[in-house]
Specification:
The protein is α/β, with parallel strands linked by helices. The chain has two domains: about 60 residues, 5,6-Dimethylbenzimidazole Phosphoribosyltransferase, Chain: A, domain 1, CATH 1.10.1610; about 270 residues, Nicotinate-nucleotide-dimethylbenzimidazole phosphoribosyltransferase (CobT), large domain (Rossmann fold). About 50% of the residues lie in helices and about 10% in strands. A six-stranded parallel sheet has the order 3-2-1-4-5-6, sandwiched between helices.
Amino acid sequence: MRQSVMERIGEIRGLDQSAMELAKLHINNLTVPPGSLGKLEAMAIQLAGITGNIKPSFDRREVIIMAGDHGVCDEGVSAFPQEVTPQMIHNFLAGGAAVNVLARQAGAEVVCVDIGVNSELSHSDLLSHKIRYGTANMAQGPAMSYDEAMQSIMVGVKVVEDAVKRGVQLFITGEMGIGNTTASSAVICALSDISVRDAVGRGTGIDDSRLQHKISVVERALEVNSPDPNDPVDVLSKVGGLEIGGLVGVILGAAVHGCPVIIDGFISSAAALLAKAICPVAADYMIVSHASHEQGHRRLLEELNLRPVLELDLRIGEGTGGVLCLHLVDAACRIVREMATFESAGISGETKEKDS
């Protein structure tokens, strides 16, 4: 299993520098002052590097919602019961969740994957790749085995591979799993110098006393398991989640196939940190959609060395911020495809005074 994952990761290549230079030259000749379109220009150049095309478009885009449950919920770390996970999955499949509404507006498909939900689920539109019925309680021992962690990554890679065969060109990370901010916080602390108190937030909206309890649970999980920061799969297996591993695979799989991947919020960013630890060049394929209202997300983005596109105080997950970011991805693409250059519009460009 490990060899299979590493073989696929070995296919990831760096960005196309030639395409990026050509895109930059083209953008600098558009009928706006150089640099005036800010993050949109940087995004257009990155997309050129990812695709090798200075004028890309992404007609088929897909939100992949990885769903799994967490044994650490036994510790009372969430304001919502674990039963909400399968209930929300049915909501996704019925098209009634926030991400569905926003995806329809943005012209994106929503796909839901059962990678580790702690209940039986059956639906014609559900992708069933269940590895186990939720993780174990990481406050008492490893969340899952090393092999199961590797399997979760391979599920994400396979889901992307199948989507690419259907013509999907861009991916958005989404997730569902009560308790996953607790696991994500532990992953972040294991892989960085971020303290538990700085990483752990209110998740679904817990009060002060439960927040202190959640901090102590993450501290205990890290102490009990001693995850190895030099082995991201060990970290995932000991204090992560199946849906987090699935998202790691989605990110790596997108990079393998030369597709951009829009990273949603806190949980997705924890998966991005794992993916970057496994394969640093995978970060070149990431677009961070927004800075979540969840405590610790900004510090996490600093670890990734990536800037968010949006500031909306979201903390819903599902892929909602990622879908909202699609509108700006489209804007960046349309600018390079449709805006006139100084030459084509017959407008005088920037002039420089000659030396006297």
